[in-house]
Specification:
Four Helix Bundle (Hemerythrin (Met), subunit A); mainly alpha
Length: 189
């Protein structure tokens, strides 16, 4: 078990912790939940850095890291949809979660075609992730004076989410349009 994989596992362990703290009946609960989420987000950066710098990339880590990221984001959004009950907030959350499902399926399909690099993480995706994490941390903290920052970052992340999904789909489009070969045809019973 490499250090990079251990950091990813720590991130997964932090998920139920920040959920439990979020629901504690204390005034500080949301702020501490945001702190736990922040530490988990830092482990996301750290595990990638450690894996690259110390050549600790493993197939297990390549599988687990994006799973941990998506679990963290989706669970935080579910908590926040309950806290910030608004159709606009829900729409942004749906866009972000829906995009993650579409892109995960697209990456898996492209990998089967041997074209995984065609849908690699882009610069826009990194900016989107930064905005998204900023939004989630600010909104989890639930500090009234800063909520506008969280909303702007969330809507910005949702917009970049749509844009990056369009870019990924455009890159994959030639493969989607390809004609099926005889071996792709289903066998008759």
């Amino acid at each position: 078990m490499t250090l990079a994989n251990q950091l990813t596992l720590v991130r997964i362990v932090f998920i139920p912790l920040f959920v439990v703290v979020f629901y504690l009946p204390f005034g500080w609960a949301h702020f501490v939940s945001a702190l736990i989420f922040s530490v988990a987000a830092i482990t996301d950066w750290a595990d990638g850095y450690v894996a690259r710098k110390y050549h600790q990339s493993t197939p297990f880590g390549a599988f687990l890291d994006p799973v941990a990221d998506k679990l963290m984001v989706v669970i935080a959004l579910v908590l926040l949809v309950g806290l910030h009950q608004s159709p606009w907030f829900s729409a942004a959350a749906i866009v972000i979660v829906g995009r993650e499902i579409v892109i995960s399926a697209l990456r898996e399909w492209m990998a089967e075609l041997g074209q995984r690099a065609s849908v690699a993480v882009s610069y826009i995706g990194k900016i989107k992730t930064t905005m998204q994490m900023t939004a989630l941390i600010v909104l989890l903290a639930d500090i009234p004076l800063l909520l506008w920052v969280g909303y702007i970052a969330l809507y910005g992340a949702a917009g970049l989410t749509l844009w990056s999904m369009i870019l990924y789909l455009r890159a994959a489009w030639p493969y989607m349009r390809a004609t099926a070969t005889p071996e792709d045809e289903p066998e008759e019973p």
